[in-house]
Design brief:
284 residues; alpha/beta; 6-stranded mixed beta sheet
C-alpha cells in the first residue's frame, strides 16, 4: 500500500479561513484528492514553544490566536476530534527525541484550522498538533520530520503549516498579490531545493535573502518537516500552488507523493489583513 501523501501549506492570513481564492481552492482540491486519512498531524507555526509536545486530548479546542480581525473569524469553530492513540505513536517513533503528551494546554490553532476548514470542511477527520521546539536546530527539525515517516504508512496525513517567506514588518498593502524581489528569490531557492534535494533544505540559511525572508524561524520550520519526510522517502516535493501576498509573504504550498494533479483555480488574492494595525501586532 502506498504511504499517505504529505503536504506543506503556506497559510497566510487567518482570513483565508473565510475567503475563497486561488490558494484556499487548492487546499480544498487537495483534501478531495487525498485518500481519507486516519488522522491529520499538523506542525503549525503557531505552536512555537520551548519543548516538543503533541496534543493528546480527545476533544481539542479551537484556538483564536490572533487579534485585530473581524468578529466572524473569532466565531469560527473547528470541532474535529483528537487522536490520543496517534499522539502515543508520535511519542514512540520520535525517540530518542522526547515528546510530551499535552492533554489540556493547546488545541487546534489557526495555522491548522484556517487550512483544514477547506481541506476537511466537515471537521470529521481526527486532528493532532506537534509543537515546534524553538531550541532545536534546522537539522534537528529535519531529522524529526524524517522520523515521522512511519505514520504515513498507517494512514496519517502529515501537514506543515507556515510560510516559506514571512516578514510581517515588510508587508506593503499596495502589493496584495506581489512579492518583493528578495522574497521571490528566496522562495525560488526553497523551491529548487524542495523539488530537487529536500534533505539539503537546512543549508538555505546561507542564502543572502534568508535574513529578510525568515526574520523569525517559526513559519519556515514547518517546511523542514516535509523536507524530512521527502528525505526519508527519497522523493522530491511538488508545488501545489504558488504566489505572494503583500510583498513579503509567500503562499507557496507543496505536496509529497500525491499522484493526482490538483488545479489551483479560484479568484486571485490571498486572505485580507486588517487596515490600520501595525503588521507586528498581527499574529498571522
Amino acid at each position: 500500500m502506498s504511504p499517505m501523501p504529505a503536504a506543506f501549506i503556506g497559510h497566510g492570513s487567518p482570513m483565508n479561513a473565510l475567503e475563497s481564492n486561488r490558494y484556499t481552492e487548492s487546499w480544498r482540491a487537495l483534501g478531495a484528492a487525498l485518500p481519507r486519512p486516519r488522522a491529520v498531524l499538523v506542525v503549525s507555526a503557531h505552536w512555537y514553544i520551548n519543548a516538543t509536545a503533541v496534543t493528546a486530548m480527545p476533544r481539542p479546542r479551537t484556538i483564536h490566536d490572533f487579534f485585530g480581525f473581524p468578529g466572524a473569524l473569532f466565531d469560527v469553530d473547528y470541532p474535529a476530534p483528537g487522536a490520543p492513540d496517534v499522539a502515543a505513536e508520535v511519542e514512540e517513533i520520535a525517540k530518542p527525541t522526547w515528546v510530551g503528551q499535552d492533554v489540556d494546554s493547546w488545541g487546534i490553532d489557526h495555522g491548522t484550522w484556517s487550512v483544514l476548514t477547506h481541506m476537511f470542511p466537515g471537521a470529521d477527520v481526527p486532528v493532532i498538533q506537534l509543537s515546534i521546539d524553538a531550541g532545536k536546530s534546522f537539522d534537528e527539525h529535519l531529522d524529526l520530520g524524517a522520523r515521522l515517516a512511519p505514520l504515513r504508512d498507517s494512514g496519517v496525513l502529515v501537514v506543515g503549516s507556515g510560510n516559506v517567506v514571512h516578514n510581517l514588518g515588510g508587508m506593503d498593502p499596495r502589493r496584495r498579490d506581489e512579492g518583493f524581489d528578495w522574497a521571490q528569490r528566496f522562495d525560488e531557492a526553497a523551491r529548487a531545493t524542495m523539488t530537487g534535494s529536500p534533505d539539503a533544505l537546512p543549508g538555505i540559511v546561507g542564502s543572502a535573502d534568508f535574513p529578510a525572508a525568515v526574520p523569525t524561524p517559526d513559519h519556515f520550520i514547518p517546511l523542514l518537516y516535509l523536507a524530512g519526510l521527502g528525505a526519508a522517502s527519497g522523493n522530491r516535493a511538488d508545488v501545489l500552488v504558488d504566489g505572494y501576498a503583500y510583498g513579503s509573504l509567500s503562499m507557496t504550498a507543496y505536496t509529497l507523493d500525491l499522484d493526482r494533479p490538483v488545479a489551483a483555480d479560484g479568484p486571485p488574492g490571498a486572505g485580507s489583513v486588517p487596515a490600520g494595525r501595525p503588521p507586528e501586532d498581527m499574529n498571522i
